[in-house]
């Protein structure tokens, strides 16, 4: 563990599986969880490609829910290969605090949060310090055995005299990667040397200065991308000369315009590292980079493979073994014509959740009858001899009846607020169930970016006791997507009739103005929770937490409704929704108490 100097496990850390190290006035802490695909799980009807796409959407939504820059955490998804063994996946987390006790407590909270994963994977905390250490520092990196995959920084030269700069710089965003990673996993599984692929993310809140820089550069490039009358003067070729659009400005203007909106929030500082104790095969590195980041529509490659200089290897490996983000840049910036402003360098490092999800792929559920390179045959993952039991929250341990919950996350595509809402409700719901004594009797199915057809088809695979809608609502009804990703509001009466036909017992409509549907749905459901007007977002968060805590504890819906509203009130928030019983119209006295 030479890359982690001063490791000093103290008190509760040695018991809890939290690795700590102390510095001047600060304590750092690391945790790890082993992640395994859930065998024999199907995520709905359709082809393998459709199921992979659904899993990728679930991964992206989960990732968006991890963005919390105020928490001061870092997280990392790591794939580890050892010859002759199944491919391993683990989640790593880092926190810091003024004292060891505070660092351990924060690390345990992070570990609990990371352990609430999409339904196609399951996780087990690594309980021993040596196991955490081995996952952080699995082998010494070879001088030719470490590279990073980064955004490229493009350079250009002005074609107009009014540019005001000697050279241009632009950073294309990460393009979406391949839908299926199976060829990549097969290539890794065949390696005769150890190997890791790791994606590190640090939630980051861009400063106002950074966003102002993006806006200013976008304005300048838009100006240069437009033909203008030059006016008089010999330099401009006479009174009637025209300055033609600058080709590089035409290329760069939309990139900066996109960046100024894309990076307002939900941003991660990102590091993608490939490493081995031996020289890395060049074709494999290229395959990995191309799988994570496909070309743009014009065929332009949107990644840059960077190799550290010999004296930078220590810094690069330190980042891997500590989840740090120290910069090493010489080889990365050498091809550029001059200094790179700090704002442009930061732009090359940050990604939003959609970009980061290109490299953040949790293990896929194995297809029926097909071999997989992952360990899915038993209840244990072993790394360096350390065994950890994998707990499958969704698997029933007896033959008792199950309560099934369908979480429907809907709204306009590419809506950052929707993505965070989706991930938040999914995480809160699953965390409440995982804490409960009834967890083995509760199954949660999530529909991400749901269309009305997705909902209808999912209900055909029911029955579901609870349908929980998370998204937007209007006075006309609940907002779904259509097949083109545009907003679509189905007729409230038809949606209510669907709930009744599919024998949904409880409808939780966690959206503004949802009483437009809920008042009708109550005719066919035993209980309906809906709002007549706007819903407070903090209140909705606390209601969801309290409501499913209560259901997980075995309480019935009226008591769970009261618990949810009480949980919101205890934190100073309101949840202005009503509980309607079967055949109860909105005009009836609302049931605020759950009694």
Automatic annotation (TrEMBL):
<dbReference type="InterPro" id="IPR024983">
    <property type="entry name" value="CHAT_dom"/>
</dbReference>
<protein>
    <submittedName>
        <fullName>CHAT domain-containing protein</fullName>
    </submittedName>
</protein>
<feature type="domain" description="CHAT">
    <location>
        <begin position="402"/>
        <end position="567"/>
    </location>
</feature>
<dbReference type="Pfam" id="PF12770">
    <property type="entry name" value="CHAT"/>
</dbReference>
């Amino acid at each position: 563990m030479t890359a982690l100097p001063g490791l000093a496990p103290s008190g509760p850390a040695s018991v809890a599986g939290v690795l700590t190290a102390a510095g001047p006035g600060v304590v750092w802490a690391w945790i790890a969880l082993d992640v395994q695909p859930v065998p024999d799980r199907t995520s709905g009807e359709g082809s393998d490609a459709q199921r992979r796409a659904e899993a990728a959407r679930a991964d992206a939504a989960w990732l968006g829910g991890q963005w919390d820059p105020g928490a001061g955490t870092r997280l990392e998804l790591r794939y580890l290969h050892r010859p002759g063994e199944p491919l391993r996946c683990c989640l790593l987390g880092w926190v810091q605090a003024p004292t060891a006790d505070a660092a351990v407590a924060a690390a345990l909270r992070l570990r609990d949060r990371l352990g609430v994963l999409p339904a196609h994977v399951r996780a087990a905390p690594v309980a021993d310090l040596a196991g955490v250490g081995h996952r952080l520092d699995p082998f010494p990196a070879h001088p030719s055995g470490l590279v990073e995959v980064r955004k490229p920084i493009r350079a250009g030269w002005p074609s107009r005299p009014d540019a005001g700069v000697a050279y241009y710089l632009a950073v294309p965003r990460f393009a979406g990667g391949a839908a299926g990673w199976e060829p990549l996993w097969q290539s890794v599984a065949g390696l005769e040397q150890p190997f890791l692929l790791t994606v590190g993310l640090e939630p980051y809140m861009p400063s106002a200065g950074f966003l102002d820089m993006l806006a200013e550069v976008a304005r300048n490039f838009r100006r240069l991308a437009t033909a203008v009358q030059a006016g008089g003067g010999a330099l401009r070729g006479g009174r009637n000369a025209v300055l033609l659009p600058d080709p590089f400005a035409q290329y760069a203007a939309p990139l900066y315009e996109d960046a100024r909106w894309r990076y307002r929030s939900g941003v991660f500082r990102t590091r993608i590292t490939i490493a081995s104790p031996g020289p890395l095969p060049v074709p494999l590195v290229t395959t990995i980079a191309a799988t994570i980041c496909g070309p743009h529509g014009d065929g332009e490659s949107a990644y840059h493979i960077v190799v550290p200089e010999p004296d930078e290897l220590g810094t690069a490996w330190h980042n891997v073994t500590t989840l740090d983000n120290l910069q090493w840049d010489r080889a990365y910036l050498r091809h550029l014509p001059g200094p790179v402003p700090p704002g442009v360098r930061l732009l090359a490092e940050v990604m939003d959740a959609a970009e980061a999800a290109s490299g953040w792929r949790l293990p896929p559920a194995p297809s029926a009858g097909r071999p997989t390179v992952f360990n899915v045959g038993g209840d244990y993952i072993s790394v360096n001899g350390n065994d950890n039991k994998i707990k499958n929250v969704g698997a029933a341990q007896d033959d008792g009846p199950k309560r099934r919950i369908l979480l429907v996350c809907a709204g306009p595509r590419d809506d950052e607020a929707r993505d965070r809402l989706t991930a938040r409700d999914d995480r809160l719901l699953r965390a409440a169930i995982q804490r409960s004594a009834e967890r083995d009797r509760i199954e949660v199915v999530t529909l991400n970016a749901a269309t009305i057809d997705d909902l209808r088809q999912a209900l055909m695979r029911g029955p579901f006791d609870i349908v929980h809608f998370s998204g937007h609502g209007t006075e006309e009804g609940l907002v779904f997507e259509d097949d083109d990703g545009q907003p679509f509001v189905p007729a409230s009466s038809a949606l209510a009739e669907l709930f009744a036909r599919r024998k949904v017992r409880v409808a939780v409509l966690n959206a503004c103005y949802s009483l437009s549907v809920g008042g009708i749905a109550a005719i066919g459901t035993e209980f309906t929770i809906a709002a007549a007007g706007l819903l407070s977002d903090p209140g909705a968060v606390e209601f969801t937490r309290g409501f499913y805590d209560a259901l997980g504890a075995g309480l019935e819906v009226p008591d769970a409704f009261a618990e949810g509203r009480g949980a919101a009130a205890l934190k100073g928030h309101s949840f202005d929704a009503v509980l309607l019983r079967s055949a109860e119209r909105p005009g009836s006295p609302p049931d605020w108490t759950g009694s």
